[in-house]
């Protein structure tokens, strides 16, 4: 089967949508499918084009049996509304001739566009029409909703127009999928027929991410004492994460010398966080770590933290949660009742009100003082990861859907799955 994937994010980006697109495409290629990806040069979460790539040049490369065509994209220096709008639109514009050419000349069997950005959707629909196949939209993030809730876009009239355009575009796809059941409900509220909605959650590699059974070198690297409690956040430092709550939480617990906060990652908000944490001896910052170091880092934690902004908590399902759970550690999450994250951490961690540093500090302090509870919740976290976040289970379901064999026990792939190492970051 020929599969065309369209998204501005792809390997070697280590986190976010690019990570999952890379793993998905490579997995499908190892199953014997011919996969081509139309994407941009790697730029996330640093918001700068990585070395060896060019922001305004077309490039072609082969990554793990996948043909990758990189299109020009504008990468803004600041996360302003206009900058982000131009960023997303530029990919839609510069990728259009490539997508249309592939639809006309390569004749894919499946056209899969990953949102954001919705700007790429018209090209995907045209390519599918040229090829005589159905286009599939996979929603990783409700970009239009988030833009208004975060204040990047404003105005009732603008909102009505934006949502109307979004609904019109989404309804043109033969199928629309997303990463959580709550997000699927949100799709149905936008007028998408329930029969055409599928849920394919993000995943974690259960072999790569697992509890360690040997001494962890990261504990000594972090300079923590054996009885210290490490509270870890690892991921993107972006606006939707609500990371300022972590600094406020650390400030509340500054008197507890045995509780150490480690914030690991990169992104547009890192500089602001470092300034906010000035003078806090209990907070350490690390750069985003390569994938081969990530499991040891996750295992260095005694408690994982997952803050969220209240105004977007029902629009996202943070992919980093899978690795947290797979490492066998409890999670303290900012999640309100009724959200997917709240449901997910109920029996393997603690859910507190989003953006509430007081509640988060109390939950962390309680877990820090109860090692047996941490062990119990950590075991439950690992079990939940195996049940809900297994990579091969999700991707076999996706493959069966794309092949039209959904509901059958085995999907007739032309070759067995072969393992390979992931591509490193930039």
What does this structure look like?
The protein is α/β, with parallel strands linked by helices and 426 residues long. The protein folds into two domains: 216 residues, 3-Layer(aba) Sandwich (Rossmann fold), CATH 3.40.50; 171 residues, Rossmann fold (3-Layer(aba) Sandwich). The protein has 15 helices and 14 strands.
What would the keywords be for this entry?
eight-stranded mixed β-sheet; disordered C terminus; single chain
Q: How many discrete structural domains?
A: 2
Largest beta sheet, briefly? 8 strands, mixed
> Could you say which structural class the secondary elements and strand pairing correspond to?
alpha/beta
At the fold tier of CATH, the topology name of the largest domain is Rossmann fold
What would you say about this model in short?
The chain is α/β, with parallel strands linked by helices and 426 residues long. The protein is built from 15 helices and 14 strands.
Layout of helices and strands, plus pairs?
Layout: E1 2-6, H1 17-30, E2 34-39, E3 59-63, E4 66-70, H2 81-106, E5 110-115, H3 121-131, E6 135-139, H4 143-149, H5 156-170, E7 175-178, H6 181-189, E8 197-199, H7 217-221, E9 229-234, H8 244-252, E10 259-264, H9 270-276, E11 283-286, H10 291-300, E12 303-306, H11 320-326, E13 331-334, H12 340-345, E14 349-352, H13 357-368, H14 371-388, H15 391-403
Parallel strand pairs: 1-2, 1-5, 2-4, 5-6, 6-7, 7-8, 9-10, 9-12, 10-11, 12-13, 13-14
Antiparallel strand pairs: 3-4
Helix pairs in contact: 2-3, 8-13, 11-14
